[in-house]
């Protein structure tokens, strides 16, 4: 009897686990929030890549390449007259834009990666060397200097008008190609010994859960939620203690709440992504495809021999319009993501058609989710 009872309870537990939605897994606080004031900074600069194998800019179409080279040679003590500058044919030089990301707490002398992208009409940057290029921030100050050999991930060849290319040859990277010259002050502690955390996704429930978890470990009043994204912390005033405090904060486990039901539609690629909270209500869908086919042919009329006539070419177009009949199909209410996918697949529509169908379902109130088109 006891064995039968245990078997029944075990079967009931398995059935409930299959029916009820699974609880969210606990995540570290560092995966959910970021500290205000601790951020990356974008850098940008302009430079020249030299040493190319005849794949550089065509100077007649990119005059800024010639001007940049003239200015650089002038700084090195080489003076060129106007006639020489106009007759330059620089096939081994390319003007490029240099971009990089300055991480937080970066100090002078630290190496960061840079991306080099062609600005003119260079065919390839393979084998080129970036000359010293200053990288500036949004305030116009120079924060790093970039220089080094450009690594290109693509390959290509051309001959007699034929061309084969794999990946892009106009952009590459230099690993550790820039040295930091100026540090960006990171003031993550506000006056009064307070700091703020920001949730990566706004959610009032998650903000409250984070506050409860922090106060449970450090004591009541340590964390206060200012809104659904910002949490204010009472931090130590000593800098060494602040680092230890932030390290302990990042390792706190929080079980986030379920995300809002959302469907992402990519109109350019036709891809559709939805999370597990999406549900459907009973509805009926009819969708038909409309296609227009235009077939154009050229008819050539040849004159008879010795008739002094001329050959006449006439273009004839045949236009066909075809519309598939869309049968009205019932879509049953679906409570789980698997049921939603099964119901949509039953319509037999393409991803491009599903975008229109989902938009219509949302307008009719049958789709319980937010639509976001990217």
Automatic annotation (TrEMBL):
Its main location: other. Keywords: Bacterial flagellum, Cell projection, Cilium, Flagellum, Signal. Belongs to the FlgI family. One of its GO terms (biological process) is bacterial-type flagellum-dependent cell motility. The gene is flgI. One of its GO terms (cellular component) is bacterial-type flagellum basal body, distal rod, P ring. The basal body constitutes a major portion of the flagellar organelle and consists of four rings (L,P,S, and M) mounted on a central rod. It holds the Pfam family FlgI. It is found in: Bacterial flagellum basal body. The keyword Phosphoprotein does not apply. It comes from the Bacteria. GO terms for molecular function: structural molecule activity. This is Flagellar P-ring protein. Residues 1-26 form the signal peptide. InterPro entries: Flag_FlgI. Assembles around the rod to form the L-ring and probably protects the motor/basal body from shearing forces during rotation. The keyword Repressor does not apply.
């Amino acid at each position: 009897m006891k064995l039968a009872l245990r078997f029944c309870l075990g079967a009931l537990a398995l059935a409930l686990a299959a029916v009820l939605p699974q609880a969210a897994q606990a995540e570290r606080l560092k995966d959910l929030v970021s500290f205000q004031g601790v951020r990356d900074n974008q850098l940008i600069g302009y430079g020249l890549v030299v040493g190319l194998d005849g794949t550089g800019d065509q100077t007649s179409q990119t005059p800024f390449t010639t001007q940049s080279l003239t200015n650089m040679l002038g700084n090195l003590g080489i003076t060129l007259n106007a006639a020489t500058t106009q007759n330059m044919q620089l096939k081994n030089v390319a003007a490029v834009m240099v971009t990089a990301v300055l991480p937080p707490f970066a100090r002078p002398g630290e190496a960061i990666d840079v991306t080099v992208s062609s600005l003119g009409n260079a065919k390839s940057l393979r084998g080129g060397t970036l000359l010293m290029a200053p990288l500036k921030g949004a305030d116009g100050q120079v924060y790093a200097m970039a220089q080094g050999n450009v690594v290109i991930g693509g390959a290509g060849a051309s001959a007699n008008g034929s061309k084969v290319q794999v990946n892009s040859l106009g952009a590459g990277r230099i690993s550790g190609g820039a040295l930091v010259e100026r540090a960006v002050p990171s003031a993550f502690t506000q006056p009064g010994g307070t700091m703020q955390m920001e949730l990566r996704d706004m959610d009032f429930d998650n903000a409250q859960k984070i506050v409860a978890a922090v106060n449970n470990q450090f004591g009541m009043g340590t964390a206060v939620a200012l809104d659904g994204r910002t949490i204010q912390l009472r931090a130590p005033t000593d800098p060494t203690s602040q680092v230890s405090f932030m390290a302990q904060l990042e390792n706190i486990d929080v079980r986030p709440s379920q995300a809002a039901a959302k469907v992402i539609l990519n109109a350019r690629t036709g891809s559709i992504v939805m999370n597990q909270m999406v549900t459907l209500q009973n509805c009926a869908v009819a969708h038909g495809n409309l296609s227009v086919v235009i077939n154009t042919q050229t008819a050539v009329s040849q004159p008879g021999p010795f008739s002094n006539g001329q050959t006449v070419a006439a273009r004839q177009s045949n236009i066909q319009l075809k519309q598939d009949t869309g049968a009205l199909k019932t879509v049953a209410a679906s409570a789980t993501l698997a049921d939603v996918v099964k119901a949509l697949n039953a319509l037999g529509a393409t991803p491009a058609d599903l975008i229109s169908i989902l938009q219509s379902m949302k307008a009719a109130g049958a789709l319980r989710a937010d639509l976001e088109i990217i």
